[in-house]
Amino acid sequence: MTTPPTVDVHAHLLLPDVEALVEGLPGLAEAKALDARRNGPAALAVNGPMVRERIPLLIDVTARLAAMDAQGVDVQLVSPSPSHYHYWTDEETAEKLYRLANEATAAHCSAAPGRLRGLGLVPLQHPHLLTAALGHALEQGLAGVEISSHAPGRELSDPAYEPFWTRAEETGALVFLHPFGCTLDERLDRWYLSNTVGQPTENAVALSHLIFSGVLDRHPGLKVIAAHGGGYLPTHIGRSDHAWTTRSDAGAGCAHLPSSYLRHLYFDSLVHDPSVLRELVRVAGPDRVLLGSDFPFDMGTRDPVGALRAARLPEADFDAVRGGNAAALLSLGVTP
After folding, report:
1. Where is the Amidohydrolase-related domain positioned along the sequence (predicted)?
2. Is 251 within a domain?
3. pLDDT (tens digit, 9 = 90+) per residue, 233-257?
4. Which domain, by its residues, includes 124?
């Protein structure tokens, strides 16, 4: 008998050098203004102190490892904070940014190679740079890359992304889908709706584009991990199935019932509700859900294993989600 390590696939890193790179560039002020409009003043007043008090956990490997020990987490898959996407940058800056982010993330993880694996960044706003950016991430020893739910003017179903999906499938790279910002904008600018409603909405929209456009038909070997349990889509997939079966426009792009594609995607466990987590495991399959905490931000959980245990899954499913599935994806060994 073997026991898989406990693996958290949703953990973040701050990269000060990336922010130094874009500081003062044309476009940054406009991007910050959009972020402010989307979140609203009350959320921004909370966000600043929240992030500042967590900076040691976000940049210091020793602090990260101590927190992992306290949580009972053996391995983290570390991805840059989505605030580092900066999809507004021009080509030259975007190339500098992804190289800097990939190299900095790899350096952070190399300080504890047995316990930290990393994901890089790619510039979704410049599709022709994506395969090179993915290749650079893999050359640094990273397991794949993190992307948002869309880029300005482009959904993930955009044909311009086909070479990227092809290369990700060929290399077996992980693609971590983590939204940043919601295009509902000021409608969500109070009560932190920009996150509580916006993030699961963006997840559902992005995954629907991948499903309904046929991206997953053309690239069945893609390893896409959706943050936040895939948002609203897994628990409301019946509406998608109904549309696919009754409307010619809804069923035109993908070959199979939308719900069937959930078993070709991966989802983290960060849904904040045991019953929702049980439903996610039911519809996606226990081999498609991975432990996730959103470490160390306040919208995550400080006890990801405890949150998983609260779902009262069968022991085999619990162990699979706790670490077995991620260990297989990351080719991690197991211990007796």
Report:
1. 7-331
2. yes
3. 999 999 999 999 999 999 999 999 9
4. 8-329
